[in-house]
Amino acid sequence: MTRVNDSYQHLKAGYLFPEIGRRVRAFSEQHPAATVIRLGIGDVTEPLAPAIVAAMRAAVDELGQRETFRGYGPEQGYDFLLDAIREHDYAARGVTLGRDEIFVSDGGKCDGGNLQELFAPDAKIAVTDPVYPVYVDSNVMAGRGGPVGPDGRHPGLLYLPATAENRFVPAPPTEHADVVYLCSPNNPTGAVATHAQLAAWVAWARANDALLVFDAAYEAYLTDPSLPRSIYEIPGATECAVELRSFSKRAGFTGVRCAFLVVPRGLVGRTSLGQQVSLNAMWARRHTTKFNGASYVVQRGAAAVYTPEGKAETRAQIDFYMENARLLREGLAASGLAVFGGEHAPYLWIATPGGAPSWDFFDRLLAEAHLVGTPGAGFGPSGEGYFRLSAFNSRANVEEAVRRLARMFAAR
Ligand code: MLT
Structure pTM? Predict the structure, then answer.
């Protein structure tokens, strides 16, 4: 028998969203007449924008002609996409990036999970808590977490609680950490970090030789233009931060798959022998070894997001989801629930009534209102007593969800 990686035994039973799917399937089998509305996993519902579809169609046609056919593309991404990213996402916000600092991939989840390969096996990893589970689980798989303790924490990781007291944006720790994962606008809490808060993190990272992994997958949902969209808007961040971006929520690419990771050339790490190494060179080595590039068709679709039509059409989709978020936020508040987020992010973070355990509230919401959300505990121990609803759905379903919530809480 093959010897296996023991660290997989340290993971909690199943990945969060498949576990939710399993429970919902079981419920639907027992209650076939129930019309279940899913506000659990943050998965887009609106069709691709016409500008994106047209660009992908044209790309397919190119591949169907001998003269314009293409095989393997550059692993890091085609220049047409890298340049669109540099110009529209970064230069427009005063940030200069080179093509070789951007790595196009097939998803932020993969980038976020793969990134930890660059860190020392005994690197101290800090996560905000609650957190997108990929950051915890990928480090646990790599042996940095250890078996979950009675407090629900992997003892090898440093947890930074995001609570109502700190408005769900933790400050830098006093303890040592080599790597900290940050996400703003935040999944799952919907909280957003200000310039001053990110500047404190950058100052801390530089003073402590730490790396920030800044997940900006939801930056397009910021409704206040003065809030930072990129960690690189903070001076000095190119020396201490990588940034994850994705087309999934910004342009409806959850099924199409395209994202990118920024690894600035100025980022250095240290080997066990004290030698300085470039993280950009390490990631380039990893990316070119294990990845053959996102598909040409998909990258043409992603580049279309930056055209005037693509910008207007994807903006309209984001506005649509944010209107859903507003309806949910107001509906939840009117039903007497304490609700956070939903103003700069497509996620609503709700304190469960009476502080009920979040999986109990999940079961109750499913049984009484046929609504699916995500239990806060699934995102980490500090998520206990909270519940996440996603604003990704049709308007009709969101309005119906609000009506069901009102009925459920009026009945109490
Ligand atoms: C979520 O619901 O948290 C996200 O859709 C998960 C993801 O982006 O992988």
Answer: 0.96
